[in-house]
Amino acid sequence: MSDCLFCKIAAGEVPSTKVYETEDVLAFKDIDPQAPFHVIVIPKKHIASAAEITPENSGVIAKIFEAISVIAAENHLDGGFRVVNNCGEDGGQTVGHIHFHLLARRNLAWPPG
Ligand code: 5GP
Ligand code: ZN
Questions:
Q1: Model-level pTM?
Q2: What is the pLDDT of residues 11-70, one digit of tens each?
Q3: With the CA atoms of 62, 67, 68 and 69 taken in that order, what torsion angle do they form, in degrees rounded to the nearest 10?
Q4: Which residue CA neighbors atom 8 of ligand 1 most closely?
Q5: Is-catalytic flag, 99?
Q6: Cα of 74 to ligand 1 centre, how many Å?
Q7: Omega before residue 111 within 30° of 0, cis
Q8: CA of residue 49 to ligand 2 center, whole Å
Q9: Ligand 1: residues whose CB is within 6 Å?
Q10: Which residues make Cβ contacts (< 8 Å) with residue 110, sequence separation at least 6?
Q11: What distance in Å separates the CA atoms of residue 55 and residue 40, rounded to the nearest whole number?
């Protein structure tokens, strides 16, 4: 996807502060953090949203959650954390490349509103 911001970040065409990277997954700091620790975790290959997950592409979602577990351990998120996926307009998704917010280091309200 040539016009996708997170594809460009995955390709290194747009700079980001990388936190963790594997062959398939990239995690980088959110530019507008909503918590003291706020990282975005993406598949390097474009998937538009959670509504586009299929049996063919779902393997990388497991890899994203494996990455989240490693990132949490490496960053000592011992108090816990929240993983958020916003999907579509009503879900508040603003970047059309599936991503998971990893938020931590503050008490996160529930329900989120
Ligand atoms: P969404 O609203 O789609 O769930 O989340 C998109 C997230 O991407 C937002 O939290 C926003 O701050 C972040 N974001 C948008 N543009 C950039 C950017 O250029 N670089 C980084 N690091 N984060 C971005
Ligand atoms: Zn993309």
A1: 0.98
A2: 999 999 999 999 999 999 999 999 999 999 999 999 999 999 999 999 999 999 999 999
A3: 90
A4: 30
A5: yes
A6: 22
A7: yes
A8: 10
A9: 5, 16, 28-32, 40, 86, 92-95
A10: none
A11: 23
Structure tokens at 61: 């979602």
Q: Which structure tokens are listed for 4? A: 């996708």
Testing ligand 1's pocket by substitution, the residue of 9, 37, 40 carrying the most ligand atoms inside 8 A of its CB is: 40
Mutational test site, ligand 1, from 82, 95, 99, max ligand atoms within 8 Å of CB: 95
Question: How many distinct helices (H) and strands (E) make up the chain?
Answer: 2, 5
- The encoded tokens of residue 17 equal 């502060």
> In this structure, how many other beta carbons lie within 10 angstroms of the beta carbon of residue 98?
26
Tell me the pLDDT tens digit for each residue of 54-73.
999 999 999 999 999 999 99
Cα first-last separation, the chain = 32
As given in the structure block, the two tokens for residue 59 are 């393997």
In DSSP terms, which residues pair with 25 in a beta bridge?
43
